Inverse folding.
């Protein structure tokens, strides 16, 4: 019987059998495949981000410092610091993260309170603490990391009693709620949403009933509605999102210019460094709106590569969460995955006009050390978790033994 005359189910079974015996299947089933996928996609996104920050920030860098390379050099320093943090985190044990969870939480709360008193105001938001010279710290970015680690630790200890109301409400919801209120007091609505997304990701992985998610979702939408009514500029963003042609020269200018940049890139782009929008037409070209510059300079091929890398990173992180037998790893991976994926979706969705602009950067790609370093640190924690999976530990020990024997 030829393949054309075989039933569809038989065809799929043959394809599945061929896949199981293929080299791709062997690579995908390798105990360290998740580790390599997370590491590879992260480093590729980081490298692409450094190149695009160099291109997108050159005009702004000349304006503020007289050199086209100042902002790119700072981003390189942030990347080096982030990679060092990633290596340290990847070499740490799961017990280290569990023991230091409360330290991360306490440090995050100290910074969130401190910024309300000594913070610098940028674009109407008091969410930066000046460190030295041009270097500033954004506590809300570190709060996301703290919520992941602490939330995973707390729910791991309550693993057998998660479905009850009392064990869900105390203490993770009150603590996360206070954290979101502090971030909101800074005027940072975008990272407030991100903290909520991280909390939902952790609770979903913990297995809470869907009826509670419906309750949280309704309360969250009601809160967003109230916050939008309380701030005229948020209402303007929502109005412009619903009707993009209403104010293209005002609140809609940034989104319109971003879409022009994406539209002029075509399939292959105008060439690296050839963006016209970055010469002042597109605000925040190297931070929140770096994705349109990628589309303009590298075209559809460049933006598709970014989406593919984020897809690989998301797949590998959630695969770690799904397959891990360790509750802390499952919850922490879900939190970090929700953080990176939802933030990328919000950023790219705003650029495309599919979502309102909230001011969150594109993870691993946009300029900014306060976003880059905690993200790499969190990914390093996941690499440590992937290395500690039973199959991965056996292979690592085998390689270490073989290496020691060769040295002898």
């Amino acid at each position: 019987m030829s393949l054309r005359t075989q039933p569809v189910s038989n065809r799929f079974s043959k394809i599945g059998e061929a896949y199981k015996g293929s080299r791709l299947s062997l690579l995908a089933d390798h105990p360290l495949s998740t580790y390599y996928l997370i590491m590879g996609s992260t480093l590729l996104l980081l490298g692409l981000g450094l190149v695009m920050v160099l291109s997108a920030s050159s005009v702004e860098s000349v304006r503020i410092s007289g050199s086209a390379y100042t902002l790119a050099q700072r981003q390189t320093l942030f990347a080096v610091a982030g990679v060092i943090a990633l290596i340290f985190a990847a070499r740490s044990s799961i017990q280290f993260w569990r023991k230091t969870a409360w330290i991360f939480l306490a440090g995050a709360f100290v910074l969130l309170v401190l910024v309300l008193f000594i913070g610098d105001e940028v674009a109407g938001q008091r969410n930066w603490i000046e460190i030295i010279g041009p270097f500033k710290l954004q506590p809300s970015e570190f709060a996301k990391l703290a919520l992941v680690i602490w939330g995973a630790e707390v729910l791991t200890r309550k693993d057998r009693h998660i479905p009850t109301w009392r064990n869900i409400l105390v203490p993770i919801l009150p603590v996360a709620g206070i954290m979101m209120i502090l971030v909101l007091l800074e005027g940072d609505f975008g990272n407030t949403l991100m903290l909520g997304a991280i909390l939902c990701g952790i609770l979903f992985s913990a297995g809470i009933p869907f009826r509670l998610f419906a309750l949280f979702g309704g309360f969250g939408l009601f809160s967003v509605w109230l916050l939008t009514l309380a701030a005229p500029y948020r209402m303007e963003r929502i109005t412009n999102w619903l009707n993009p042609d209403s104010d293209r020269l005002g609140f809609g200018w940034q989104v319109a210019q971003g879409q022009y940049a994406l539209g002029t890139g075509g399939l292959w782009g105008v060439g690296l460094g050839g963006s016209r929008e970055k010469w002042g037409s597109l605000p925040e070209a190297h931070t929140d709106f770096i994705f349109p510059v990628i589309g303009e300079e590298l075209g559809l091929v460049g933006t598709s590569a970014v989406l593919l890398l984020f897809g690989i990173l998301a797949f590998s992180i959630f695969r770690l969460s799904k397959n891990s037998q360790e509750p802390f790893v499952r919850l922490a991976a879900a939190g970090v995955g929700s953080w990176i994926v939802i933030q990328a979706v919000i950023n790219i969705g705003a650029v495309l006009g599919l979502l309102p602009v909230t001011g969150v950067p594109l993870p691993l790609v946009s300029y900014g050390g306060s976003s880059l370093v905690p993200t790499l640190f969190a990914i390093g924690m996941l690499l440590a978790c992937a290395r500690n999976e039973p199959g991965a530990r056996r292979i690592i020990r085998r390689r270490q033994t073989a290496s020691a024997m060769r040295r002898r």
Observations:
- Residues 44-403 form one domain.
- The chain has one domain: 44-403.
- Residues 290-323 form the longest helix (34 residues).
- The radius of gyration is 23 Å.
